[in-house]
Amino acid sequence: MPCPSFRLLSWILLLAALAGCATPVFKDGPATSPTIAEVAAAPERYHDGEVVWGGKIVAVENLADTTEVQLVAYPLARGQRPDTRAPSQGRFVLVLPGFVEPMDYPAGRWLSLRGRIAGSELRTIDRSEVVHPRVARADVHLWPRDFPDDRGHWSFGVGVGVGIR
């Protein structure tokens, strides 16, 4: 029979491991999503396919019946959070129905979405023409404004000192 302290330690380690797991925002999304580059290269192949993508808002444009949110795409990390340390993967456009308050979707804000590919369009960035996949019928998760700095900070030190942050 195992020692009671061993059993307690096992439970503590198990709970600590589970606490470190990030719950995905969209639990019923696709197992894998095509990359921005794959969709940009063959948008007709992925038309109406479901994706879970994330990125950083670049611009918001309200049109007559819809709003277009242009994003720089980043790969998703744990919990479907955009991986801010990874290189960008291109750009895409999120199409939302109706009017969206631009202050709710400011440039620089991070989001994750689950939606359907709705074609692509050619947009000019500086002097380059870039294919932007379009995503519609999306569920959107806006990350907190202090993202990605809302994860805990770890530090270790010995001695006397003053920490400035």
From TrEMBL:
This is Outer membrane lipoprotein. One of its GO terms (cellular component) is outer membrane. InterPro entries: OMP_Slp. Keywords: Lipoprotein, Signal. The keyword Hydrolase does not apply. Residues 1-27 form the signal peptide. It comes from the Bacteria.
